[in-house]
Amino acid sequence: MKRAALLLAVILVAASCATTSQPQGQSLVNRAVQAAGGADIVLVDPQYSPAVNQRKESAGKMVKLLGKVAELRHVGIFPRFEVMRDWHENQSIPVESFVIADGLHMNDWGYACFAQLLGDDIIRSVGQIKLGVNVPADVRTYRPM
Question: What is the pLDDT of residues 75-91, one digit of tens each?
C-alpha cells in the first residue's frame, strides 16, 4: 500500500522555538508528527542563514531537537542546516549565493538545490526501504546543483 509522502517543513516551529522553551518546541513538533496520521514524514531543520545564525544557541537546540524527534518517532529528517553550512564553510559558496537580502530566506537557487537534494533523498529512501537497506545519514554528501 502506497502512502503519500508528507513534508513537514518545521520552519514555523523553528521560529517559535527561538522564543519558547525546548519542551514547548518538542511538544509542537510531536503534535505535528502525530497530525500526519500515518503518512510518511520528512522533518526539515532550520536553514543556515545570517538571521538564524544570530541565535546560534537556539538554532543548535532546534537542530538537535528535530534529530531527537526524528529518531524517537522513526521518521526521516533532512539536514538542511548542515547542508547549507557545508555549502558555505566547506565549499566556499558565499551565503549571498543562496540566501536573499533579508538574511533569512533562501533564494531561487537555494530552494532549487534544496528541492533537488530532498527529492533525491526521498527517492533513495524509497529504494532502500524496498531493498531493506538503511544507510546512515552521515555517509551522504550534499552538493549544490
Answer: 888 999 999 999 999 99
Report whether 3 contacts 40 (CB < 8 A).
Answer: yes
Dihedral angle at the C-alpha atoms of 68, 70, 76, 82, nearest 10 degrees?
-30
Strands 5-9 and 40-44: parallel
The Cα 50–Cα 62 span in angstroms is 16
Provide the 3-class DSSP secondary structure of residue 116. Answer: helix
Residue with cell 537555494: 110
Q: Cell numbers 513538533 correspond to what residue?
A: 29
CATH level 2 (architecture), domain 5-139: 3-Layer(aba) Sandwich (3.40)
Cα gap 81→106, rounded to integer Å = 12
- Answer left, alpha or beta for residue 39, where phi above 0 means left and psi between -120 and 50 means alpha: beta
What percentage of the chain reaches a pLDDT higher than 70?
68
- Cα 57–68–2 angle (5° rounding)? 130
Q: Which of 98, 36, 32, 105 is nearest to 65 (CA)?
A: 32
29, 36 Cβ separation under 8 angstroms: no
